[in-house]
Specification:
The structure is a single chain. With about 575 residues, the protein is of the alpha/beta class. It has helices spanning about 1-5, 25-40, 55-65, 85-95, 105-120, 135-145, 165-170, 175-180, 195-205, 215-225, 230-245, 255-265, 270-280, 290-360, 370-380, 395-400, 415-420, 460-465, 490-505, 520-530, 540-550, and strands spanning about 45-50, 70-75, 125-130, 160-165, 185-190, 405-410, 425-430, 435-445, 445-450, 455-460, 465-475. A 6-stranded antiparallel beta sheet has the order 6-11-7-8-9-10, sandwiched between helices. Strand 7 and strand 8 form a beta hairpin. Helix 10 (about 215-225) packs across helix 11, helix 10 (about 215-225) runs parallel beside helix 12 (about 255-265) and helix 12 runs antiparallel to helix 13 (about 270-280).
């Protein structure tokens, strides 16, 4: 809607936790550093708390994008579970097999075996629980017991708890003191300051492709006043204001428009602000007759009341000053701890960098620079398709004739695992030459790559020294799929999506070919995306369809490693 009007790539103030839009204020950067430290700490708990809407989930999603390749993670979004259900969910997230109707001991044994095996392979395992303030006390106690899984030198499981301020109160209870003592790092996210609010709005507009000044300074002041610096509320209010500007054909947003938008999305009488925009209203003057005696009595009451209130105010000020002194002392201690923590994080990152430098990455000596067309030919062979670059000049047109979509992207190793399809890797040698290989198989640290028809076994470190992060791949599309599916779109691609989403719930729907992508289907897609950590934005793009194809086995090559193939 308004995104095209303002020339944006997408909506800048969506409330979906998109890591691309994470505004790195000093405290958000420090919160992320705590989580990074927690991932590599080697046991215990890390605690991240904050008010609703301050960006906890977005920070955690940003962490997921930056996880080292040697880290396995179990991410639990809905912690309202029993102890048995929680352990079963952890096992499901880590793909650990367990008996039907298992006991707590069986689940714990399965998890312990898995952690020992992962530790032997040099892997780290992290359990991250969002909305942790909803955990029951007995479930928290079971989580504490998970940190007892250890070797003689190291804990096998790192646990990150993310929740609202109630989580701090919950962990302060006497019966949970053993768990509280195992928390090695804590951080509490606060709302943004007014200056940060300005930078936040500019940052999100910039990420969406808007470089001009859309919000007037007074408008941003009004946004901060209405939202108290809570990022989610800022998003809701700014989104509504941009919609209002679009409706009125305006290219800038002032404070009066923010007032009207606030009344619409946060409650209140819109007419009150509209009247304020047009002309301030004045109440008619009222005339009162007061006798002299009554006037004297009134003055006495005012004087006595004023004296009492003054004494009360002085006492409150004294108490406030004492509190501020205590807070200042505590703040100084926290700053010292944070400085020490940041130093530890930097030391950990430096040690990791040194370990990586000790590896001697190399490509096979006989691998020569390979052009893209050769790599495309090898890629299509994995799909049993014969692509000839001399006859089929446009590779994407060739893919579409076989009901496939081509995609170019810049990704991490984690996203490669989610795509789970053969991809063309763009590599660059030390002398600047480009070469392209087809990643055929990937498991843990082992890869199989095809260069000009020859296959090589390589490690992530060997290929990672040259990989630019850029990839090209193809995937099976539903009929009539042209672009990611959004609200109000319709057609056979929507029909396919709705049918398969319903099948996940065990429902066989008869969906017409002109099915519309409505709100109910969008919410189903969001739940699906959340479950499989696909970025819950409600837009059904390549990763959503690829994951559905994998679940329903639509006939496609994967990156599963088969040791019997190749040299």
């Amino acid at each position: 809607m308004y995104d095209k009007y303002f020339g944006l790539n997408d909506k800048p103030f969506s409330i979906a936790p998109d890591p691309r839009y994470l505004y790195m204020s000093d405290q958000h950067r420090e919160a992320l550093a705590h989580l990074v430290y927690g991932v590599g700490d080697g046991g215990g708990f890390v605690l991240l708390t904050g008010e609703v809407g301050t960006g906890k989930t977005t920070v955690s999603r940003c962490l997921l994008e930056q996880l080292p390749a040697d880290t396995y993670i179990a991410f639990i979004l809905n912690p309202k579970l029993s102890a048995t259900e929680l352990l079963a969910t952890v096992c499901d997230e880590l793909h650990i097999e367990y008996p039907e109707q298992p006991t707590l001991k069986q689940l714990s044994d399965c998890l312990n075996d898995y952690l020992l095996e992962s530790h032997a392979m040099g892997k780290h395992t992290v359990l991250m629980i969002d909305e942790a303030q909803n955990l029951e006390i007995e479930v928290l106690e079971q989580i504490r017991l998970l940190t007892n899984l250890e070797t003689n030198k190291q804990k096998l499981l790192q646990i990150i708890l993310i929740g609202q301020p109630e989580l701090k109160e919950l962990l302060g209870r006497h019966e949970l003191r053993q768990l509280a003592q195992r928390i090695t790092a804590r951080f509490h996210l606060r709302p943004l300051s007014q200056e940060e609010c300005t930078d936040y709005i500019v940052h999100r507009l910039s990420v969406s492709g808007f470089e001009e000044h859309l919000f007037e300074p007074k408008a941003i002041e009004e946004v901060f006043k209405r939202t108290a610096g809570v990022p989610r509320l800022i998003n809701v209010l700014c989104d509504r204001a941009m919609l209002g500007a679009y409706a009125k054909n305006r290219k800038s947003i002032n404070a009066k428009m923010i007032k009207i938008s606030a009344a619409e999305v946060m409650g209140g009488d819109v007419r009150e602000y509209q009247a304020d925009v047009i002309k301030p209203s004045r109440a008619p003057a009222k005339h009162w007759k007061i006798s002299s005696a009554a006037l004297v009595l009134l003055m006495v009451v005012i004087i006595v009341f004023g004296y009492t209130e003054r004494e009360k105010l002085i006492k409150e000020q004294d108490i406030q000053i004492q509190k501020q002194n205590v807070i200042a002392a505590e703040s100084s201690q926290v700053q010292n701890k944070n400085a020490a923590l940041q130093e530890q994080v930097q030391q950990l990152l430096q040690e990791k960098k040194l370990r990586e430098q000790q590896l001697l990455p190399f490509l096979p000596a006989n691998v020569k620079p390979t052009d893209q067309s050769q790599a495309y030919t090898q890629l299509f062979l994995q799909w049993d398709l014969d692509y000839n670059p001399e006859l089929d000049s446009n590779v994407c047109d060739f893919a579409k004739t076989h009901q496939k979509q081509c995609e170019s992207d810049s990704v991490t190793w984690n996203k490669l695992n989610r795509i789970d399809r053969p991809v063309v890797l763009e590599l660059q040698t030390e002398d600047g030459q480009k070469l392209y290989g087809v990643l055929l198989q990937l498991q843990d640290n082992e890869l199989r790559v095809n260069f000009s028809g020859k296959q090589y076994r390589l490690s992530r470190q060997q290929i990672g020294a040259y990989w630019t992060g850029n990839i090209f791949y193809i995937w099976n599309t539903p009929a009539d799929y042209l672009e990611p599916i959004k609200l109000a779109m319709h057609g056979r691609a929507v029909q396919w999506l709705k049918t398969h989403i319903a099948k996940l719930d065990g429902v066989d729907l008869i969906v017409p070919p002109d099915a519309v992508y409505d709100y109910d289907l969008q919410q189903s897609v969001v739940r699906f995306q959340s479950k499989y950590a696909l970025g819950a934005d409600g837009v059904a793009g390549p990763l959503t369809f690829i994951t559905l194809n994998s679940l329903f086995g639509s006939g496609h090559p994967t990156l599963a490693l088969n040791s019997s193939e190749g040299p």
